[in-house]
Amino acid sequence: MYCDKCGSPLGEDASICSKCGKELNKDHSANKEMDDIDTARAIDLEEELRISFVHKNVDYYQQKWDKMKQLNKTISWNWVTFFFAPFWFGYRKMYVHVAGIALVYFLMDLVLFLMDDMISLNSGVNFFTIPFATVLGLYGNDLYLKHTNRFIDKANIHLTNHEQKMTWLKRKGGTSWLGVFIAAAILIIYTIISMIVFPTNTDQISYVKDGAFYDYPSQTIGEGFEHYFDEREWEYISNDNPNDVVRFSGLVTLDSEDIPVTMDFLLTDDSFEINTVTIDEELISDEEINKFIDTIFTEE
Predict the structure, then answer these.
(1) DSSP string for residues in 157-196
(2) Which of 3, 46, 48, 167 is the most buried (most CB within 10 A)?
(3) Tens digit of pLDDT for each residue in 99-108?
(4) What pLDDT sits at residue 142?
(5) Are residues 59 and 49 in the same domain?
(6) Are 163 and 61 contained in the same domain?
């Protein structure tokens, strides 16, 4: 405390300034005490609002948030958001976050598609999965804290009655099993869109690559082509044909020149066969196809 007249420092129990002799106003101690009471009351009311919004497991999250504040950090581990982030966010009615996660999944698929990593794209497990899940595990509690505070701020701005604030926050917050189903629906929509935009069909491709010709049963087609061709590429072709078509493209060296080869496999219910083969953009006959296959699988 300081003297209002001369600014000299004062003791807690001082009634007169020792430097200028001014009598001190005792109300400042009472005012400070009232300020402390008002601050404590405001904190209690804020705590009630947070309890109304979080509701279930509020003690767990409050403990996490208090520790984050004490350490001045925004990271705090949450196992549920690590393993089940989209469904947990849906359970906590954080639908914007669920949509954000679906968008990140879509961007990850886009990167894998551009990298031509069809196996990872088809399985849904890739080198992005664990790092992204770890980020969600580290920042899940902080995201929930920001979400909670955002709604409390809205209540304080638009509502004046404390009971009304608590009722509104209880309705907006808490948990919802319906939110879990909403999150699942968002993920299903993402999956459908991803399958349309990034067709993979790795099963059909693997079916051909892991298969073998009748005349060369000891070696798979994939192994034989890997030995014979350079710059190999397999892709599923969507067309109007009632059967699936898998296309192989590669380069073969003939007379010191790289010649492009394209081979289409026609898939039926229980087998596949070569439909067409082009060498240097020229379609070859069935007899020439048989000789070409012999060359591929007999050449040392």
Answers:
(1) HH---HHHHHHHHHHHSS--HHHHHHHHHHHHHHHHHHHH
(2) 3
(3) 999 999 999 9
(4) 97
(5) no
(6) yes
pLDDT of residue 40: 46
Which residue's entry shows tokens 């209002």?
A: 4
**CA pair distance 137, 58, nearest whole angstrom:** 18
Q: Is the dihedral of CA 99, 101, 103, 105 positive or negative?
A: negative
Pair (154, 193) in one structural domain:
yes
- The rounded distance, in Å, linking the Cα atoms of 137 and 191 is 23
Domain boundary among 30, 53, 76: 53
Residues 104 and 164 in one domain: yes
CA 230, chain centre distance (Å): 36
Residue 1 pLDDT: 63
d(CA 131, CA 115): 18
Count the neighbouring beta carbons within 10 Å of the beta carbon of residue 50: 21
Q: Hey, which residues does 278 pair with through a beta bridge?
A: 262, 283
Structural domain including 272 reads 202-298
pTM > 0.70: yes or no: no
SS3 118: helix
Quick one: 177 and 238 in the same domain?
A: no
Q: How far is CA 291 from CA 42, 277, 285, 287, 298, in A?
A: 88, 12, 10, 6, 10
Q: What is the pLDDT of residues 277-296, one digit of tens each?
A: 999 999 999 999 999 999 99
> What is the rounded distance in angstroms from the CA atom of residue 206 to the CA atom of residue 118?
11
**Residue 55 corresponds to which amino acid?**
H
Q: What would the two tokens of residue 45 be?
A: 């009311």
Round to whole Å and give the CA distance between 242 and 133.
41
What phi and psi values does residue 231 have, to the nearest 5 degrees?
50, 55
Q: How far is Cα 51 from Cα 47, in angstroms, rounded to an integer?
A: 6
